[in-house]
Amino acid sequence: MDGRDKPGHDDVIKSMTIRDLAKPDWSEVLHLNEESVHFLAPMDEARLAGWSAAASYFRVVELDGKVAAFLMGFRKGDDYDGVNFAWFAQRYADFVYVDRIVVAPEFRGRKLADLLYDDCESFARAHAIRHLTCEVNVASPNPVSLRFHEKRGFQEVGREAYAGKTVAMLHCPL
Q1: Domain count along the chain
Q2: 140: exposed, middle or buried (C-beta count within 10 Å: 0-12, 13-18, 19+)?
Q3: Is it true that the peptide bond before 27 is cis, omega within 30 degrees of 0?
Q4: Using CA atoms, how far apart are residues 109 and 60, in angstroms rounded to an integer?
Q5: pLDDT (0 to 100) of residue 11
Q6: Which of 40, 61, 137, 161 is the most exposed, having the fewest neighbouring CB atoms within 10 Å of its CB?
Q7: What CATH number should be reported for the domain holding residue 15?
C-alpha cells in the first residue's frame, strides 16, 4: 500500500467518530498501548479501569469499526498519581495533562492525533482551562512527538529525569 491508497484527511473525518471511551474498547486500547509501550508507561486492565474512572478526558477515534486512536487526559484535581502530572500540578492553577495519545500504526499519517488534540483543546476551553500540558521523551528521544507538539505550539518548560529516562515537560497556552 502506498500513500495514494490512503484516504485523505477529509475522507477520514467523514468516516470516523470521536467519542468517550467505553468498556468494550478496553481490549483495543490495551493493545494499542502495548504497541507503543517503548514511549509510554505500561497499562494493564486494572490501571485502565482506575485511569478511565479518574480521567477528565478519555476519548477514542473510531474508524472502520475499530479504535484507531485514543487520548487520555487528566485535569488538576483528578485522582491521578503520575509523577509528571504532579510536576505540572505544582506549577499551574488548572490544566489538562495529556498522559498519553496513541494512534494505531495502520492509521498514522491521517491527522488523527491532531483531531484528538483539537477535541481535547475544545474540552479544555469549554471548562475555562487555559493550559494544556504533557511530557515527551528526550532520552530515549521521541522526535516525532517532539515535532508534533512543537507544531501545535507547545514549548518546553522543564526537564525531569527518572526511571532511566529524561522527559521534556511541555506547555501550550490556550
Answers
A1: 1
A2: exposed
A3: no
A4: 17
A5: 56
A6: 161
A7: 3.40.630.30
> Distance (Å, rounded) from C-alpha 91 to C-alpha 106?
37
Percent of the chain with pLDDT over 90: 80
pTM: 0.90
Q: What are phi and psi of 81, to 5 degrees?
A: -110, 25
Buried b (16+ CB within 10 A) or exposed e, 4-26: eeeeeeeebeeebebeebeeebb
Task: Spell out the alpha helix ranges (H) of the chain.
Answer: 9-15, 26-35, 45-54, 83-89, 112-126, 143-151
pLDDT tens by residue, 136-150: 999 888 899 999 999
The pLDDT tens digits for 60-80 are 999 988 999 999 999 999 999
Three cell numbers written together for 174: 490556550
Question: What band does 4 get if pLDDT is binned at 50, 70 and 90?
Answer: very low
Per the structure, the complete domain to which residue 22 belongs is given by 3-173
